[in-house]
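Reply to dn_fold:

You asked what the input looked like. This is it:
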Amino acid sequence: MFTRSQVWRAWQLQGCVCKLCGRAIPFDLMHGDHIVPWSLGGPTTIANLQALCGSCNLRKGSHPQEVAQALFSVERLAPGRAELRRWQEEAMTIVLGVIEHEPVLVEACPGAGKTQFGLEVAYRLVAAGQISRVLIVVPTLAIADEWQRSASVATPGAPTLPLRSQRDWRAVDPIGDEWLGAIITYQSLFASTEMFLAHATDPGQRTLVIFDEVHHAGANAAWGASAQEAFASGAAAILSMSGTPFRTKRDPIVFVPSEAGNARPHFRYSYDQAILDGACRPVQFVEARGETTFRTEDNQVHSVTFDDTTLTRVGEQRRLRSALEWIGEGSIAEMMLAHANRYIIGLRQRGDHDAAGLVVCIDCDHADRVAVHLASHVLGFRPVVACSRLYDENDPDPANAIRQFRASHDPWIVTVNMVSEGVDIRRLRVVVYLTSRLTQLAFRQIVGRVVRTDPSNVDDHGRVYFPADHRLVNMAKHVTQDVDLLPAPIVIVTDQDPARIRIEGDNDGLGVPFETLKTVGEQGNVFDTYGHQADAALVACARLFIERERLTGTDPESLAIAAADNPELRGALLTLREDL
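and this is what came back:
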């Protein structure tokens, strides 16, 4: 290898430009290259040295020196067979009209079909000769798997594009002329920014960069900074997409247009419109109430319910933490898991044979306790668990577990944050919300896991079980409302400074760790995204009615919601109130 001082000398002699493409490139992005390749006998001498940018050096490799005009053969691509949805057609017209002139942002709710849309944009630009390379940037390895599967012949509805993956390709290697581009993660972009600048600016190439879930790329954060460094001047076109396009902090998002401090999409497709169009499922929300008993850091024992409205903010958070963590017999968490499992069993008995549920947990230890409880008290076997103890969203172990679950018949998957966005598992019907990731962003992402339509169950709906904390209830009731991309932070924190603990009254002293002693679960209210709702008493009557009549075509929550707007049915159910 040439020394950096030798490369510096060659770079200076060349006028601080790349010898092949002639572009002015900073020295720290220059490579020392053998004019006659070393593998072909070329000596490591100054006379055989030239300074090349990373893209030229990667493309040249050990081949004869040339700058090739890159044109990808359209015959090697295949168009998608499925018709675009109405929103995709409308957005396509807007995107194709401006993407060569400015970065474009498309906001579409989870489950609306952003992956298919992104692949269709790429296909049309390549087919028109406007683009010759595509780089897709995603949050996690699991989502990268989703994109590659959608772009493969295994998914004929979407265009077939030959895209490399981090599972079998490294950023330091050339993409190769037989490939259109690559799917990478934000983390790998950050780790190899120079390499992706090289790929995006390969001589002769015109590169389309697609940012999936672009809200991860805050302009003031490392991922956003690396995205700007790699693609701000090197990309011929940029398409950003997100289903929840806002950040809990107010820092701007890279390549996202803004107006008066708020980012604005070129096209927005909301969840309520997707429900009306049949592009997404509606969702039922089932509250879990009950009593929580816990010892706080001031050594006081408290027993409170979700009906108590006089608690301090810390008291509310301790109450919620207890409901999330405690999985003992008769607990709030156990009741949610048991009810959700009965619901899945009912769906499978009614013909939805691969219906499944997702439990989102606080951390890996919590996920393990949930899995143990499901195995010993609910299922009789251990569910699939996707959790990274390395705290790495791209840990291959949980990513592989998700791939296994998608193709299996397993009824449950237990995760921490690996299935919070972008992961398309259409057989998911239920979410049990046991996580402390309680920002508005996280809530919408997790709810989004059960809104995807399934051709085999077109009339179905998703369902979310969660503790009846008033902040969660409020987020659920407003889940169909549009949210500006950069709203004021909405954050619920579960860990507090012990010196500031106060549940009610005054502090007497500190010195013990917080401890949940017990929770007791009770049925809560039910409501859906259409605005229908039923209280806990009506749900209890519906459950008794189903048991007495031995009904198999419905469940208590759905029947109660139906009765809320049907006076005759409601009256029939309420006649059973005295028998409860």
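The radius of gyration is 27 Å.
Hope that clears it up.
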